[in-house]
Structure to design on (363 residues):
């Protein structure tokens, strides 16, 4: 089994970008930027964490605390992204209800 | 965009403490090596200096730890100046500080996760 | 293997001190050996230690080079002090005047050396324990 440390999170990115495209009639620019920044942070944190797994497996890790901190960061980044997505969906549904 | 500000200082401190642990281990390992001069890690002084300068401690501002050699004269005739009592105390102190920082950092992460999980 | 490098550092010292204790034990065991393979009395042996410096991979790892990589035995040398002369004319190894040459080993000094080696060994064991505890607590981050 080969460990490939570089994975992205594509599905989440697509959903978020679609939703933001629907909503962002006027103020789309800043919002889209914030969203892609968020996705980027999540991808970055996840990539670093997967790299750490490789480092431990090959015996190249020096200390443990850096690795554990990176993994906690990745978890928090993911949680944050999920919450943002939930809020966006809530807002979207709210708006759809109004127009009906 | 995603920056846990409080954690940068704690992480850098953990890095410094880890380096100090390694240096202390090397001192203790070389306690019988002729001519060996004990080494130490300086970190806290640099931190004090940075805070006193008034710079807000962003991650880039936190000073790095540095390894320096102690050049005190030794009593022993083989030129070795390792003081086993000092090193043992240092080892113990590093251990306690490290575990404390870990605890604090863990609590910080816990709080953030609790906040993020609220509302759903 | 540079995972938790202090384990390598302490490990090198444990090996070195144990070797030193073996040499001391050999000195003590041979304190009355008046005839070795080369016909001479047993000469006291001493170990010389030196700081261990990088192997090939150590050169790439400059941080580790600054921290240090433990200790190693540089050499086992013979003590050049002259042998003890004891008047024993009936001994098979007595020389023309009835003196027997005994090894230049001072039992008290050897015992002190052994205690020192033992203490150094214990100090390095406590380093291993400290590293274990710190690594175990690091695993608790985010739990």
């Amino acid at each position: 089994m080969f460990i490939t440390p570089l994975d992205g999170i594509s599905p989440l990115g697509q959903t978020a970008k679609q939703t933001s495209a629907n909503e962002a009639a006027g103020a789309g620019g800043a919002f889209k930027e914030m969203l892609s920044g968020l996705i980027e942070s999540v991808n970055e944190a996840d990539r670093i964490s997967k790299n750490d797994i490789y480092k431990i497996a090959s015996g190249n890790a020096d200390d443990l605390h850096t690795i554990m901190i990176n993994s906690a960061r990745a978890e928090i980044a993911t949680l944050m992204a999920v919450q943002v997505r939930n809020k966006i969906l809530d807002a979207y549904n709210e708006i759809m209800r109004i127009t009906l | 965009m995603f920056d846990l500000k409080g954690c940068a200082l704690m992480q850098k401190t953990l890095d410094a403490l880890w380096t100090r642990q390694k240096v202390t281990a090397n001192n203790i390992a070389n306690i019988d090596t002729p001519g060996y001069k004990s080494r130490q890690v300086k970190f806290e002084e640099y931190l004090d200096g940075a805070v006193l300068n008034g710079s807000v401690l962003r991650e880039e501002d936190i000073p790095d730890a540095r390894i320096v050699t102690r050049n005190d004269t030794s009593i022993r005739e083989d030129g070795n100046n390792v003081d086993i009592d000092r090193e043992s105390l240092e080892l113990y102190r590093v251990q306690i500080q490290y575990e404390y920082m870990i605890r604090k950092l863990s609590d910080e992460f816990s709080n953030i996760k609790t906040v993020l999980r609220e509302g759903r | 293997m540079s995972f938790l490098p202090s384990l390598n550092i302490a490990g090198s010292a444990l090996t070195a001190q144990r070797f030193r204790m073996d040499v001391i034990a050999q000195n003590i065991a041979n304190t009355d050996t008046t005839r070795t393979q080369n016909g001479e009395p047993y000469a006291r042996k001493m170990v010389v230690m030196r700081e261990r410096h990088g192997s090939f991979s150590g050169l790439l790892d400059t941080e580790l080079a600054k921290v240090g990589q433990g200790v190693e035995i540089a050499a086992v040398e013979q003590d050049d002090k002259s042998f003890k002369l004891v008047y024993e004319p009936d001994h098979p190894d007595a020389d023309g005047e009835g003196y027997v040459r005994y090894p230049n080993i001072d039992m008290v000094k050897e015992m002190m050396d052994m205690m020192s080696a033992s203490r150094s060994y214990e100090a390095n064991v406590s380093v291993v324990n400290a590293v274990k505890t710190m690594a175990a607590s690091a695993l608790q981050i985010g739990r």
